[in-house]
Design a protein that fits this description.
46% helix; 7 strands; single chain; alpha/beta
């Protein structure tokens, strides 16, 4: 059953993405200001398919810690493509820190630029950090809520990796605290996994930590993640 559901989801999501990718052309040419709303619609539809076809119930806790408006820094665990979609529905004006190569994907890439996402060329070294902070300034001035995945790549459920320092630099640079988020999304939509599993997917949002020195802040984010993970372990 899981395989059949996964086939249906992957096929329908692929077709939907292709159709909406083509449909985005008039948005890019004539209504660039509607790009974020269009991206939110696509995310909503893909996640609806995921829940409906794959038998997944999404449980979000800690919404009271998210801002209703204004700039914010969200440090989320990253296990799945799900994590790159859900924030479109949870935040008023999301801005993702993402790999720069994503902007070069046909149809999708130009829309990511129009929606105001923050591409970072990770191989650029010190220049990448300068660009990250410049992009952070722009997003904060535009009252965007910045979502960053400090692990740097998708990880397996329960896997622990050293966090990248970018989130600490952003917090120190802006004076904003960091809102930690833990998830078990990889159990249901695994990294590069064709089969999607049913069950209860948790997105657990915790109270903000910092600002603090880099080492302290990264430790606080890790500590918060471990505490939030108890929501689905129990």
């Amino acid at each position: 059953m899981a395989v059949l559901r996964s086939v249906m989801f992957n096929v329908v999501a692929f077709v939907l993405t292709g159709v909406m990718g083509v449909g985005a052309l008039p948005i890019r040419w004539f209504m660039p200001g509607r790009a974020l709303a269009y991206a939110r619609l696509w995310s909503r539809l893909v996640l609806w398919l995921f829940r409906s076809l794959c038998g997944v119930r999404v449980c979000v806790s800690g919404l009271e810690y998210l801002p209703k408006s204004g700039p914010a820094l969200i440090a989320s665990q990253h296990q799945s493509a799900f994590d790159t979609l859900v924030w479109m529905l949870l935040l008023p004006r999301p801005c993702y820190v993402m790999k720069g190569e994503l902007t070069r994907i046909p149809l999708l890439g130009p829309m990511l630029v129009l929606t105001g996402m923050m591409p970072v060329e990770r191989a650029a070294g010190a220049r990448a950090m300068r660009l990250l902070l410049a992009g952070t300034d722009k997003a904060v001035a535009d009252n965007r809520q910045i979502v960053i995945f400090p692990e740097g790549t998708r990880t397996l459920p329960g896997e622990q990796v050293a966090l990248k320092p970018g989130i600490a630099a952003m917090s120190s640079h802006t004076g904003l605290p960091v809102i930690p988020v833990a998830t078990n999304s990889g159990l249901f939509w695994g990294r590069n996994a064709f089969v999607k599993r049913s069950g209860v997917l948790h997105v657990c949002i915790g109270p903000a930590v910092g600002p603090a020195k880099r080492v302290v802040l990264l430790e606080e984010i890790e500590k918060s993640w471990r505490a939030l993970e108890q929501d689905w372990v129990q």
